[in-house]
Write a structure and sequence with these properties.
The complex is a heterodimer. Chain A is built from 3 helices and 2 strands. Chain A is mainly alpha-helical. The longest helix of chain A has 28 residues. Classes of the chains: A mainly alpha, B mainly alpha. Chains A and B meet through helix 1, strand 1, helix 2, strand 2 and helix 3 of A and helix 1, strand 1, helix 2, strand 2 and helix 3 of B. Strand 2 of chain A pairs parallel with strand 1 of chain B. Chain B: GO terms for molecular function: chromatin DNA binding; protein heterodimerization activity.
Chain lengths: 116, 146
Amino acid sequence: MAAAAAGSGTPREEEGSSGEAAAPQPQAPTSAPGARLSRLPLARVKALVKADPDVTLAGQEAIFILARAAELFVETIAKDAYCCAQQGKRKTLQRRDLDNAIEAVDEFAFLEGTLD
Amino acid sequence: MAERPEDLNLPNAVITRIIKEALPDGVNISKEARSAISRAASVFVLYATSCANNFAMKGKRKTLNASDVLSAMEEMEFQRFVAPLKEALEAYRREQRGKKEASEQKKKEETDAAEGTTLSCSLGPWAPSPPPGQSSLRPKSRGDRT
């Protein structure tokens, strides 16, 4: 799947299967740099949400916020893992940096044992 | 082939881009680390969904909404996400409103155009009858009787 969309302002990639109208105009009047709308495809996030047997329905806004939260999470964990790599004077993030970050940071406790 | 929830990974290209933008230039990431982060993101979504669902059930609702997810973030001790998520939500709502108004405007224009065509056709075959007193029949002459 060639998801090599280089556009920084386009929120959704080719997967317009979520039932919403595709956003053809990337014009975002927001000036704040972090206010970009989600880059993760909402359809995939929706699939994850539906994988939970206890969930009946999820609104579009909920899916969107989960996608955005997942992005923030990726940024956060990458930065924390990078701190460990820096201490080892390396410029490449390794799997063990991630494991160290998970052990060190309380908020990542839910990940223990899930990545193996 | 059983489809486990962990197999629902998010696209690698997007994950890599997010990681690269979060880190300073020149920093690389190994394949294993990247795929581990991708899996972690999926686990995060599943965990957040489950937490959010608890809030929805407490509120006796069957549909997850945005505030359920925000409450879940606090529950999971990711309070620092709440403010940027609220901003993103506002921007998303504005965008949705803009799209809705645009599509309603389009629909209105299409309906007006359609109604215009229908009206002009209905008056075509109707022809008015002549008013009384102007009959085209000539009066009978009485000179024929003997």
